[in-house]
Amino acid sequence: MRRAKRCAHRGKGRGPAKGVVFGCLAMGGIWAVAFLLGCGNSKASRAMEAYIYAPAPSGPEGGRVLLDAPFLDQREKYPTGCESVTAAMALQYAGVDVSPDEMIAAIPQGRAPQPDGAGGYIGCDPREAFPGNPYTHGGWGCYAPVVLRAVEDILRERDVSSLSILDLTGTALEGLEEYLRGGTPVLVWGTIGMQEPEADITFTIEGTEEEFQWIYPMHCLLLVGVDEESYYFNDPMAGKAVAYPKGAVARAYEGLGRQALAFAAPV
What does the alpha-carbon distance between residue 112 and residue 137 come to, in Å, rounded to a whole number? Predict the structure, then answer.
């Protein structure tokens, strides 16, 4: 995920491949601190994050919600394929048996940003295709419209009409909570470890004169729970029901343009 996204992307972007390193330290018998070296491009070394895993909420009491959605891990086979892995988790929870490989096959791939010979970079539009290859550390990552269209194609091919694809892009986090309370997890675009989003390289979208600003370290994960202080995610780079502070989630979510999708049965 070189990364510029690469999902984690950067491994998704431009530089070096990323690696994942976990170290666990018991504190008080209930908290564990895990350090993740996120995937990304040449900036991967800065993706080291401290993760604190809080006990997952056990039920809706006290306003807490935690959905038991399937967890799929991207780290071994899909180093920059967080979008496809996350979409597969959401679809499986909704009753559609789709694998990450099937999701990847449904997503068009384009050219990852590369030097244009004139001091800049050029690559495909991540709103239209996945730049690079999500099976490699050199992949970047795609935005919500690409995943939405891929899921539409999969449901059409399987003649699944009992599921609605909800484009929640632009919705505030508080609005996404309502879907959780209704039993629907949400795909959220944020950053690895909910790090502060940073402006990375700017590249020209091939075939146009439009410039695209890459945000590092982009990531896609499944929102499955909420309590007073945290949001919980099935994070394909970190684990099941991982807690992140609400403030950090809000910062990452805003930095990636409030991108979100959900798959739900019509009411």
Answer: 12
So what's the pLDDT on residue 265?
A: 80
194 residue type, one letter: M
d(CA 163, CA 87): 14
| C-beta separation of 96 from 106 below 8 A | no
For 95-122, how does the pLDDT look when each residue is reduced to its tens digit (9 = 90+)?
A: 999 999 999 999 999 999 999 999 999 9
Q: How far from 212 is each of 21, 112, 124, 164, CA to CA, in Å?
A: 31, 12, 10, 30
Say if residues 232 and 225 touch (Cβ distance below 8 Å). yes
Instruction: Copy the structure tokens of residue 199.
Output: 């402006």
83: its two tokens: 């979008």
Cis peptide before 217 (omega within 30 of 0): yes
- By residue count, the chain amounts to 267
Phi, psi of 4 (to 5 degrees): -85, -40
pTM of the model: 0.80
Owner of token pair 């939405």: 148
Nearest residue to 102 via CA among 148, 142, 153: 153
Q: What is the CATH number of domain 71-264?
A: 3.90.70.10
Half-sphere exposure of 162 (CA within 13 A, CB side): 5
- Rounded CA gap, 73 and 106, in Å? 19
